[in-house]
């Protein structure tokens, strides 16, 4: 007869949010965390290959959801939703879509302050002096000593004419900083 196992936390859904939540909760070595996900343990061979994502909807890794009939055609549209480890993130070609600023502002107004800071590890390497910036004015990555980013991603916007000009300018400045002060 097997013994009952007790957990401090049970997280249902091993998609992006559930996996992050379970990982954070388990950082406390004393917490017992169970992460549950529907679907089997086997995944289609296309899953780890981002260009193969169009073959994943309609497989056992997809719930098979459909929308209601659309306004102009009356036809439902397939709504790919991942089923299995990784959830929908496992079948969406590694596409990351950040919501509109107004959504986060509204959540902050309702008391959920600081959510935008969680984009720091996955966002561009935005330059700035505020806590949301990834690199400082000398291209040093905040929190990682000795690392600089010389990339167009530090710029808040890229010129539309010669996009490489921004990269050249950033690289020139990075060379100045590194040669003057060391990495």
From TrEMBL:
Domain Glucose-methanol-choline oxidoreductase C-terminal stretches: 98-171
Gene3D superfamilies (UniProt xref): FAD/NAD(P)-binding domain
InterPro entries for the chain: FAD/NAD-bd_sf, GMC_OxRdtase, GMC_OxRtase_C
UniProt GO MF annotations: flavin adenine dinucleotide binding; oxidoreductase activity, acting on CH-OH group of donors
Alphabetized Pfam families for the sequence: GMC_oxred_C (PF05199), NAD_binding_8 (PF13450)
Domain of life of the source: Bacteria
Family affiliation: Belongs to the GMC oxidoreductase family.
Protein name, entry field: GMC oxidoreductase
């Amino acid at each position: 007869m097997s013994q009952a196992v007790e957990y401090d936390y049970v997280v249902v859904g091993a998609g992006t949010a559930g996996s992050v939540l379970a990982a954070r909760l388990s950082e406390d070595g004393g917490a017992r965390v169970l992460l549950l996900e529907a679907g089997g343990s086997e995944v289609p061979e296309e899953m780890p290959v981002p260009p193969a994502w169009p073959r994943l909807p309609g497989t056992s890794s997809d719930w098979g959801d459909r929308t209601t009939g659309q306004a102009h055609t009356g036809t439902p549209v397939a709504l790919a939703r991942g089923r299995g480890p990784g959830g929908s993130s496992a079948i969406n070609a590694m596409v990351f879509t950040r919501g509109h600023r107004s959504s986060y502002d509204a959540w902050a107004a309702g008391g959920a302050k600081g959510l935008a800071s969680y984009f720091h590890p996955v966002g561009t390497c935005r330059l700035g002096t505020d806590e949301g910036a990834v690199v400082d004015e000398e291209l040093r990555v905040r929190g990682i000593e000795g690392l600089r980013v010389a990339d167009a991603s530090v710029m808040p916007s890229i010129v539309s004419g010669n996009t490489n000009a921004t990269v050249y300018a950033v690289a020139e400045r990075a060379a100045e900083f590194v040669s003057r002060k060391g990495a």
